[in-house]
Specification:
The protein has 418 residues and is α+β, with helices and mostly antiparallel strands. 26% of the residues lie in helices and 27% in strands. The protein has 13 helices and 20 strands. Strands 2, 3, 5, 6, 7 and 8 form a six-stranded mixed sheet that branches. The protein has a six-stranded mixed sheet with strand order 9-14-13-12-11-10, with helices on both faces. Strands 16-17-19-20 form a four-stranded mixed sheet.
Length: 418
């Protein structure tokens, strides 16, 4: 993240810090209008008692990504307001200022700040002298953190510090892996009409239900999915909430978050793509998160392969319809060997010389891209529901990844023919 984040001269942050101290001198106790837990309009009285500056600014860095402040406050009366409501009421909207609540040794940042410098302690304190005591240090830089492997700033994500630390640890252990695709200006330009596929027209049709900031991301999403999921179909059911799907890809927009148990019981999701709204500070782009080589699913599927009818990753699926049901379900037939797939294709051809199909092969985690296209997969004698719709249709539980992997043939069992 540190490499992609824009950084600014120290002096610009000194001016912001001076303004914040002036505001505290004017009134260290303020009445805050906000909504309570039941969305009822209420007022609270809050007193800010101390302010520390921490991070690279406190160490004297000549350029900084932002200025990190720790605030201690006391609730005088009323329910607790949201932290953002407190800072906005006291200081207004100041860009590139990160506020944490508590004390340097224990704050909402989840990080201990041993280099914290007390700046404001009470009205009329000499905060200017405290700011001047921090001497510029040309060699000072941003301190390394446990979460530095995460390519987005914490402020761009709706996730707790402990959750981000856990993700970084899983990536370090090889349980997860990820990449960051930075968006250039050209990626956000409208896609020429003649280049828009029928698949992507669906996304464009529902885009006006999204917020304006999310609409800006649509061209970049189309271009990204052309690379990651060219055959996936858009699922736009929750597009107004910044949640979409495209084949085996789950996209989250705005200030996105991840499920608590990432990839648990998700045989149709190969990757999560988190795309924050475009900001001047950045980084602007897509954080693409996948199972790593040490993930249980990756290990379960590592030596599993299957053949299917249809080529270039585009399988031929079957719409299964039972007369007792009011809806149909989509099914995919998988085969243990190339020969089995060919025999099945010949049976379907049944004298129709005009009907032709290729035989494709998938292995490992790439199998998930096939699962994402259907509700049920058939593997030999096994009929496995992999979506809620498939489970409801056949009135059975959804298959786990372990059950799916166990039904797939091992690589040594698959014919070498291709």
């Amino acid at each position: 993240m540190a490499a992609l984040e824009k950084r600014y001269p120290r002096e610009s942050f000194t001016k912001k810090l001076e303004r914040i101290c002036q505001k505290l001198d004017e009134a260290s106790t303020r009445t805050i209008a906000h909504k309570d837990f039941f969305n009822k309009a209420v007022t609270s009285e809050v007193e800010i008692t101390s302010l520390w500056v921490v991070g690279s600014y406190a160490r004297g860095a000549l350029i900084c990504g932002d200025i990190d402040l720790v605030l201690e406050y006391r609730l005088v009366e009323g329910p607790h307001p949201a932290p953002r409501r407190i800072t906005k009421t006291f200081f207004g909207a100041l860009p590139y200022v990160s506020y944490y609540f508590g004390k340097p040794e224990s704050s909402t940042s989840g990080v201990v700040f041993p280099d914290a410098i007390a700046i404001w302690t009470e009205p009329d304190c000499d905060w200017r002298a405290a700011i001047d005591s921090i001497k510029p240090v040309p060699s000072a830089s941003r301190a390394a953190r446990e979460t530095d492997s995460i390519p987005l700033r914490p402020e761009q994500l709706y996730m707790e510090p402990e959750g981000l630390k856990a993700l970084a640890a899983l990536e370090k252990e090889g349980v997860l892996e990820w990449e960051f695709v930075e968006f250039a200006a050209a990626d956000l330009e409208p896609v020429p009409t003649q280049e828009i596929s029928e698949r992507d027209r669906k996304l464009i049709r529902v885009a006006h239900y999204m917020g304006k900031k999310s609409q800006i991301l649509v061209p970049a999403m189309i271009r990204l999915m052309d690379r990651l999921n060219p055959l996936g179909v858009w699922n736009t059911f929750e597009s107004n909430r910044g949640r979409l799907g495209c084949g085996a890809t789950a996209l989250r927009l705005g200030r996105p978050s991840l499920p608590y148990n990432l990839f648990d019981s998700e045989p149709t999701i190969k990757q999560y793509v988190l795309i924050p709204h475009i900001s001047a500070k950045g980084p602007n782009g897509a954080w693409i998160i996948r199972r790593g080589p040490n993930h249980p699913d990756a290990q379960a599927l590592a030596n599993r392969h299957a053949f299917y009818l249809g080529g270039q990753g585009s399988p031929e699926t079957i719409a299964y319809r039972d007369r007792s049901k009011t809806w149909s379900t989509e099914m995919l037939e998988l085969f243990g060997t190339h020969e089995e797939a060919k025999d099945f294709a010949d049976m379907l051809k049944d004298g129709n010389d005009s009907w032709e199909t290729d035989i494709g092969r998938a292995e490992g985690l790439d199998l998930i891209s096939l699962f994402a296209l259907v509700d049920v997969v058939e593997i030999g004698d096994h009929q496995l529901a992999i979506t809620h719709a498939g489970a409801a249709y056949f009135e059975r539980d959804m298959a786990t990844m372990e059950e799916i992997a166990a039904a797939l043939p091992l690589a040594t069992q698959i014919s070498a023919e291709a």
